[in-house]
Amino acid sequence: MTARRTSPEAFDLGMFLAVRAANRVIEESGPVSENNDQKFVYDFTEGNRDLKDLLGGKGANLAEMTNLGLPVPPGFTITTEACKVYLESGSEPVELRDEVTAHLDALEQKMGKKLGQADDPLLVSVRSGAKFSMPGMMDTVLNIGLSDESVAGLARQADNERFAWDSYRRLIQMFGKTVLGVDGELFEDALDEAKTAKKVASDTDLDAADLKKVVEHFKKIVKAETGRDFPQDPREQMDLAIEAVFNSWNTDRAKLYRRQERIPGDLGTAVNVCSMVFGNLGPDSGTGVAFTRDPASGHEGVYGDYLQNAQGEDVVAGIRNTVPLADLESIDKTSYDQLMDIMNTLETHYKDLCDIEFTIERGQLWMLQTRVGKRTAGAAFRIATQLVDQGLIDEAEALQRVTGAQLAQLMFPKFDEDAKVEQIGRGIAASPGAAVGKAVFDSYTAVKWSRSGEKVILIRRETNPDDLDGMIAAEGILTSRGGKTSHAAVVARGMGKTCVCGAEELEVDTKRRRMTTADGQVVEEGDVVSIDGSTGKVYLGEVPVVPSPVVEYFEGRMHAGADDADELVQAVHRIMAYADRVRRLRVRANADNAEDANRARRFGAQGIGLCRTEHMFLGERRQFVERLILADTDAERDEALEALLPLQKTDFVELFEAMDGLPVTVRLLDPPLHEFLPDITELSVRVALAESRKEPHENDLRLLQAVHRLHEQNPMLGLRGVRLGLVIPGLFTMQVRAIAEAAAQRIDAKGDPRVEIMIPLVGTVQELEIVREEAEQVIAEVQARTGVELKLALGTMIELPRAAVTAGQIAEAAEFFSFGTNDLTQTVWGFSRDDVEASFFTAYLEKGIFGVSPFETIDKDGVGALVRSAVEAGRATRPDIKLGVCGEHGGDPESVHFFHEVGLDYVSCSPFRIPVARLEAGRAAAESKGSDSR
Question: EC number(s) of the enzyme (predicted)?
Answer without folding.
Answer: 2.7.9.1
